[in-house]
Automatic annotation (TrEMBL):
Protein name per Swiss-Prot or TrEMBL: TRAP transporter small permease protein
Subcellular location per the Swiss-Prot or TrEMBL entry: Cell inner membrane
Complex formation: The complex comprises the extracytoplasmic solute receptor protein and the two transmembrane proteins.
Function: Part of the tripartite ATP-independent periplasmic (TRAP) transport system.
Keyword field: Cell inner membrane, Cell membrane, Membrane, Transmembrane, Transmembrane helix, Transport
Membrane topology label: Multi-pass membrane protein
Presence of the UniProt keyword Membrane in the record: yes
Keyword Nucleus: no
InterPro entries with a match to the protein in the record: DctQ (IPR055348), TRAP_DctQ (IPR007387)
Species whose genome carries this gene: Roseibium porphyridii
Similarity annotation: Belongs to the TRAP transporter small permease family.
Length: 221
């Protein structure tokens, strides 16, 4: 079967809204081709959203990170009190926080891609000539896009398989795991968007003569 026909099956499965069909379709080689287009086009669309809705550009990842962090803390605090003082405990209180932590972690990754705090090696790059600095920044963008492509494909396969098998979050009766697992490919679309956004800024800085590389620190937004 050709890549084109396999890709058509993926789109057909998605339109059918059948988890088992989606899971089976994503096992083909075409998943990597479709995933590449989704990563690039999805990232580009998110960049446009960032451009036209500045609040989202400034606050999306930070808001999600803070919300999930506070929710994790609240669940743990309340359930520890209930367990050791009242001798009762919600059965989902030990299984929900790890899923929330998953969301917080990858949103934090996207946030730090925005800030360029992932192994930036700024001191070394600042000593390089401008062409070499721009080459390194371009390599950064390509690597992030490559990582995002791989994770978007593989994590979507995991989420689809979870949905196809009706995997329930432990401690609940009807909360499906894929509702949380799908946050991983979505987060990596944000990472792809941040990589594109940063590279466009780098191109503008190169053309205008502005500094390409500077000192960065976590939380310096």
């Amino acid at each position: 079967m050709s890549i084109v026909s396999e890709a058509a099956e993926i789109f057909s499965a998605v339109l059918s809204n059948d988890a088992w069909m989606i899971s089976e379709a994503l096992k083909t080689d075409a998943a990597w081709v479709v995933g590449a287009f989704v990563t690039l086009i999805g990232g580009a669309l998110i960049v446009l959203v960032y451009h036209y809705v500045p609040w989202i550009e400034r606050s999306l990842e930070a808001t999600i990170m803070t919300s999930t962090y506070l929710l994790i803390g609240a669940i743990i605090f309340v359930e520890v009190f209930r367990r050791f003082v009242l001798n009762v405990q919600a059965p989902w209180s030990t299984t929900l926080p790890p899923f929330l932590f998953l969301i917080m972690t990858w949103m934090g990754c996207a946030y730090n891609v925005k800030l360029r705090t992932h192994l930036a090696f700024s001191e070394f790059r600042m000593a390089m000539p401008r062409p070499a600095q721009f080459l390194c920044l371009t390599l950064d963008a390509l690597l992030w896009l490559g990582f995002s492509w791989v994770v978007v494909v593989t994590s979507t396969q995991v989420a689809a398989n979870s949905a196809a098998n009706f995997q329930i979050m432990l401690g609940t009766d009807n909360v499906l795991q894929w509702w949380f697992l799908i946050s991983v490919p979505l987060a990596f679309l944000l990472i792809a968007a941040r990589a594109m956004e940063n590279w466009l800024i780098d191109v503008k800085n190169l053309m205008t003569g502005k500094p390409l590389t500077g000192a960065v620190a976590i939380g310096s937004d």
